[in-house]
Amino acid sequence: MSEPAWDVVVVGAGAGGAAAAYGLSRRGLKVLLLDAGPRFDPSTDYPLTGADWDTQDFPEKPGSRGTYTFAAGQRLAGPEPLLASGSRGLGPLVGSGARLMDKYHHVRGIGGTTLHFTGEAHRLHPGAMKMRTRFGVAADWPIDYAELEPYYVQAEELLGVAGPTSQGARWRSRALPLPPHPLSYAARTLGKGAAALGLGWQENSRAALSRPWNGRPPCNYCGGCNKGCPRGDKGSADVTFVAAALATNRCTVRPDSAVIRIEAGTDDRVKAVLVGGTDGSIERIATAHLVLACGAVETPRLLLASDGLGNDSGEVGENFMDTLLVSVGALHPEPQHGRRGLPSDAICWDYNAPDAIPGVIGGCRIYNAAGEAELRGLAAFALGAVPGWGLAHAQAVRKLWGHALHAGAIGERLPNRDSRVDLDPATRDRFGMPVARIASSLGEADIARLRFMAKTLHDLVAASGAERIFESYSSWDWFSATHVFGTCRMGRDPQSAVVDADGRSHRWRNLWITDASVFPSSGGGEAPSLTIQALALRTAERIGKG
Amino acid sequence: MRRRHVVMLLGLLPLSGVAALWPFRRARARDGAREHVADTVEAIADVMFPGDGLPGARQLGLPAHVLAMPELAVPIARGVGWLDAEAARHGAADFLGLDATGRLAALDAAFASGDDGIQALVLALRFHVGMAYYTHPAVKSAFAYTGPPQPDGFADFAERPA
Lengths: 546, 162
Prior knowledge:
The complex is a heterodimer.
Chain A: E1 6-11, H1 15-25, E2 31-34, H2 42-45, E3 68-70, E4 86-87, E5 91-92, E6 100-104, H3 131-135, H4 145-159, H5 185-197, E7 202-203, H6 241-247, E8 251-254, E9 258-264, E10 270-276, E11 282-292, H7 295-305, E12 324-331, E13 346-348, E14 364-368, H8 372-375, H9 378-385, H10 390-400, E15 404-411, E16 420-428, E17 434-439, H11 444-463, E18 468-474, E19 478-481, E20 511-513, H12 529-542
Parallel strand pairs in A: 1-2, 1-11, 2-8, 3-17, 6-19, 11-20
Antiparallel strand pairs in A: 4-5, 4-18, 7-13, 9-10, 10-11, 12-15, 12-18, 13-14, 14-15, 16-17
Chain B: H1 2-48, H2 63-67, H3 73-89, H4 100-111, H5 116-134, H6 137-140
């Protein structure tokens, strides 16, 4: 049999796959970076110049959305007046008595979900990495913050992260490469409320350029991050890690290439992947090393669909953690027009430590979501914020447009045995492989944390001068997850972890994982992409070194 | 036998001619009903989104968008029937026979009726016509900061809104 053409095949060109491909190719390894989705062209796929911008989400292209199903939603034990999702204008979101399993937000394609992410660049709170030892929940990370810190620095440099010099417990060996963005007007309004409550309120660290960086222009504060950044100032993986990997001339990128199965050898090494093309063809690609970076839903699905590869511990697909979110929108007496500026440009870390919330294990962070209603445009505001119809409605919309003030909170999500990703027994993809089925059930600690988050947000918008809350959404009754974690957790013990401290399978010595599925705990609401990239750079240094 | 058949057929001709006209009469009745539903939906749209100095929803031609949605055809027909009955309770021939105040009151009554189907229809019309209305260029242009994100962004993002 001929030698593999590639030193490493990386599956998934999002945050973790792109960073791994860069880390490997800069070492001189020959890398093939595959993604099931297409290549996007920012100038034509999401120019954000159309008058219909407010009805356009991040674009869908053939292959850019994976197929998945949901297990039945958790029964809701209510009432939870602070947590029930809905708006004054549109009414309750959920009326069934069960949690609405709505959407797993992701993008397949070169750049992956970073193409539509907000672009927050957070380091994990050091204290959130030892949840088992400190609190008896989740699992400990087998590495600590100090081990990860140099890789955070590398990722921040490549991305051009802009942010403040200090973020409390997140000590750093080098300052962020770019100064923070000025706070938007609406963020400053919320900042007054935070000050009145005695809460910290600072610039968020953002993978969006505050100055030109590596040939990319600075942000022009259009607020459109989640619809795709046509300028390239947002640090999505396509314009950062993928571009850097390609610049080494040792990385080949192949879109529209869905890995449908992993082929294992008879020893302790995987041999190849079977790749499905858009024309239905199937190609076998041999590799010396295989890196999976498909995210916490697709990575376990691929392993389970490959005859349970790497699942000797029985933990593949288990310990699923999704986004624990509350957002609150209120009307302020003064116009804010929070659509202007970077979304989530300000943040409060006061409750981020895992023991910071009184009586509840696991932290959260609070942020400016002031543009939320207006980021969805006039129609979303008119229908959601202002109830009724007729002349009075029209006059109220005229009066109140621009007055929305939003605050959000994202918190720790603890794993439990009712939350997992497994194979759907009934639904198959176009290659005949079973699709992922997502089950999510919140524990009492998660719900208690949500209550704290909601109460704090209510206090914050009130202290900021807002007079009436017009909408509130929460993960209590609504599964709408972008950040997902934990389904191939890392750990030292092969009996309880899928990969080791280096991201290598305990069973298969050339199989590695560099996405958020390896997270043993979710952190206290930090956006995960920077940590994924730091882990991927670290893993990339270890591949092929014995 | 053959002759009798011929006579019978001749005798049936006038009847068959009348019978042949039935589909046309039914079609005309259907057209009339369809027209009534369309007129009523247009009136509802104008009650909901009258404009306040801007063109109203009917003037912008937005109800046609809702009437073209096949999934709403049956609920709309039922809802129009409900509104006509409500108008009749107030002495009008139908919803269209009410004045502006009466139409608004009938719509409010429909939403408050406790009838899930009627409530859902009112919300569906509000949502679909409202989305079309507040995304229409003629309406958006009357509001600040509704233009596309690019190419200019918002240079004034840190300032008090103009």
